[in-house]
Amino acid sequence: MVKRSPSGRPAALSQARPPQRRRGRERFARLLDVTEQLLVERPDADVTLAMIAERAGVPLPSVYHFFPNRNAILIELARRYHQDLTELNLRPMAPPPDSWQQLVRARHAIGRDYLNAHPAALRLFMGAGVSVEVRTLDLNGNTSMAGLRAAQMRARFDCRGLEGLDEWLGNAFGLIDGIWAISWARHGVVTDPFLEESLRAAVAYLRCYLPEHLPALPANSGELLE
């Protein structure tokens, strides 16, 4: 029988238990760090909670205290990657971009560099064996990132009349992800040529809806989200 939540929907079997105390937060972070190390060494399907416990030097029951199953810890690791990517994309660009094309290119190049520096993130997000829950978290994260990118564009450029901007940018994220997945499958990283191909595809798609030139707004109007 499928366990269900009070709402009648299937219960989230892969939901982690967030730590409340400092020691618990430290152990939680340590388990995520070890999981990342193991994902660099082997496919995610080969990583078990027992393996994580042994590498971390933590009793297996303590791992189960936070994570009911292997997928739960993979989801939390994916969540941490998306939080890092969001923080990176909130940092101001210096100098500010002169065009929407430059903004798109610069921001996605930052994301590519982060992923290449975290091979486990590439395996989680680009690998063929990724779970439905991890994939859903990744898609939701991309949707949030597209909203952030739209806010950055509206803060920097006159985007009046572009009501579909969030959706268009979300679709552009999908194009970029698809091309990056091909690069990861072939090379284990997102190479410079594949980065350029992905940006060409995204900019070409966005040109279907955005004018070639968007007037820049006064500098002080976009200082929070440049």
UniProtKB/TrEMBL annotation:
Ranges where the record places region Disordered: 1-24
In terms of InterPro entries, this protein maps to:
Homeodomain-like_sf, HTH-type_TetR-like_transc_reg, HTH_TetR
The Swiss-Prot or TrEMBL record marks DNA binding at 48-67
Q: Which UniProt keywords apply?
A: DNA-binding
The UniProt GO MF terms for this protein read: DNA-binding transcription factor activity; transcription cis-regulatory region binding
Whether Transmembrane counts among this entry's keywords is no
* All residue ranges annotated as the HTH tetR-type domain in the record: 25-85
Protein name as catalogued: Transcriptional regulator, TetR family
| Species in which this protein is naturally found | Albimonas pacifica
Top-down, what is the taxonomic lineage of the species of origin? Answer: Bacteria, Pseudomonadati, Pseudomonadota, Alphaproteobacteria, Rhodobacterales
